[in-house]
Amino acid sequence: MGSKPEKLHLFLLILLFTSLYSSSSSAVTLQSSFPKEALPTKSGYLTVNSTTGSAIFYTYYEAQKPRMNLSETPIIIWLQGGPGCSSMLGNFYELGPFRVSSSLRHNVEHLSLEPNPGSWNRVFGVLFLDNPIGTGFSIASNPEEIPRNQHDVAKHLFIATRKFVALDKLFENRPIYLTGESYAGKYVPGFGYYTLKKNEGLPKSRRLNLAGVAIGNGLTDPEAQVGTHAVNAYYSGLINEKQKTQLEKLQMEAIRLTKNGNWSEATSARSRVLNTLSNMTGLATLYDFRKLKPYEDELVAKFLSNVEIKRALNARESIVFDICSDLVGKVLHEDVMKSVRYMVEFLVKNTKVLLYQGQCDLRDGVVSTEAWMKKMKWEGIGKFLEAERNVWRVNDELAGYVQKWENLTHAVVMNAGHLVPTDQAVNSQAMIEGWVLEKGLFATRLKQKPSNMGKSL
Ligand SMILES: *[C@@H]1O[C@H](CO)[C@@H](O)[C@H](O)[C@H]1NC(C)=O
Ligand SMILES: *[C@@H]1O[C@H](CO)[C@@H](O)[C@H](O)[C@H]1NC(C)=O
Ligand SMILES: *[C@@H]1O[C@H](CO)[C@@H](O)[C@H](O)[C@H]1NC(C)=O
Ligand SMILES: *[C@@H]1O[C@H](CO)[C@@H](O)[C@H](O)[C@H]1NC(C)=O
Ligand SMILES: *[C@@H]1O[C@H](CO)[C@@H](O)[C@H](O)[C@H]1NC(C)=O
């Protein structure tokens, strides 16, 4: 398992007659194509429990234009949120080398893979993991094995990543950066924290070479974050003062339940806050207040429902692919409001941390993240809060803002919602490359204070 399938025709053209459009009189045909050059370098399963056979599904894309020897080229691990959403969303809709796009001609919906101008594997390898087991194409041999907390999630991720690294001599010592979005605001700190602690007791050859963690539009410290929706929406002109007060009452309830450790109720209370905000504003999605329709993530599910494509990816054909697993969502329901801020505090003392947000997200956006960042117990937090927020430009155009002190970097990505790489592919690539390679505003020490502020890269 795990390497490229030997025979794959240059273009697979598969016709699927779907019942999705049964309401319309004429059936819509779905046509999908998967060009050979879009195949992952490696894909398949990493067993996390040899007794039961539970396994994490992965796709790996080697760097397209590595700047250094491959044996030293960083590897980025991407984890989707949810809880329970598949990293194939990141792969085929956000930051992978090819993204699904759809066009409708004469009642035929064409799903094709188009090259991504901002793919994150330009100069790094990128590994997508369907996490936790039960998510996407990953296998949970029985539901009881699905992790219920971040420690158990991390345990499986550590085992899977160790197995991945052992697949090829070329992977052995490469620096690993953990990244992810949304609920991965829990997974990324959880996995990073577990790794640093676990590494201490292991011989060098069995450690993971963790070099940094990055979280996009994350849920990390829910108690602080759930308290920010009302002011954020009010000062964005989306609700009035009366609605703000109503929303604040609901937020207080979510906070109270969280403080009491009434986890399940607290999660439901947070959902009420978000549903109420959604009802009040009438927005198509809280993931981006600009959007007139939601993100089209179901394209990925349609694309991956195709058995030929599952085969091409070395995914188990019998698995019915869902973008997000309701079962995993349920299993982690009580985990949602639990904070992992203390894990980020540990990480920022021992490695580097990037927190970035699309500016237009109303769920886990800029205000929401700053609310907990400023509460961090870390000797550098005062210096960070005093540090200049620099205007960040890419190709001479305004891309956002970057604030940094030592190991902590905060980036705001303009004109982006919850799925930053989907909305700002090229700028998200500039961000991740800048941060990993410590270039421009992401450099550890800015060479000199720019004299004309804002012109610096
Ligand atoms: C593997 O599964 C068995 C049986 O469910 C369980 O006892 C064990 O803890 C699992 N190991 C891991 C690493 O999850
Ligand atoms: C790449 O690796 C080779 C062999 O180990 C070494 O001679 C060479 O200097 C390396 N190149 C770079 C750019 O590190
Ligand atoms: C949790 O909250 C619900 C609703 O407020 C309440 O009925 C229940 O008793 C609480 N449970 C605990 C353990 O506090
Ligand atoms: C939001 O609106 C829908 C449809 O009107 C309704 O069913 C739902 O109960 C509302 N939710 C909240 C939290 O107000
Ligand atoms: C930043 O991380 C390094 C390890 O990479 C650590 O030695 C240093 O103490 C950290 N700095 C602060 C201010 O926490």
Please provide a written account of the structure.
The chain has 457 residues and is of the alpha/beta class. It folds into 2 domains: 332 residues, Alpha/Beta hydrolase fold, catalytic domain (Rossmann fold, 3-Layer(aba) Sandwich); 56 residues, no CATH class. It contains 15 helices and 14 strands. The protein has a 10-stranded mixed beta sheet, sandwiched between helices. The chain has a 4-stranded mixed beta sheet with strand order 1-2-7-6. A hairpin with a 4-residue loop joins strand 3 and strand 4. The longest helix has 19 residues. The N and C termini lie far apart (43 Å). The N terminus and C terminus are likely disordered. The chain binds 2-acetamido-2-deoxy-beta-D-glucopyranose (NAG) (5 copies). The site of one 2-acetamido-2-deoxy-beta-D-glucopyranose has 4 residues, from helix 7.
Short key terms for the protein model shown above:
disordered N terminus, alpha/beta, binds 2-acetamido-2-deoxy-beta-D-glucopyranose, 14 strands, 2 domains, four-stranded mixed sheet, 457 residues, 15 helices
Shape: globular
The stretches of 5 or more residues where confidence is low (pLDDT under 50) are: 1-26, 450-457
Can you tell me the CATH architecture of the largest domain? 3-Layer(aba) Sandwich
Just give the CATH class of the largest domain.
Alpha Beta
How much strand content do the residues show? 15-25%
Average pLDDT level: 91
- Name the ligand types: 2-acetamido-2-deoxy-beta-D-glucopyranose
Distance between the termini: 43 Å
- Number of DSSP-assigned strands: 14
Q: State the share of residues found in helices, binned by percent.
A: 25-40%
The CATH superfamily of the largest domain appears as Alpha/Beta hydrolase fold, catalytic domain
Order of strands in the sheet with most strands: 3-4-8-5-9-10-11-14-13-12
Tell me the series of helices and strands, N- to C-terminal. EEEEEHEEEHEHEHHHHHHHHEHHEEEHH
Largest sheet: 10 strands, mixed
Radius of gyration: 22 Å
By secondary-structure content and strand pairing, the structural class works out as: alpha/beta
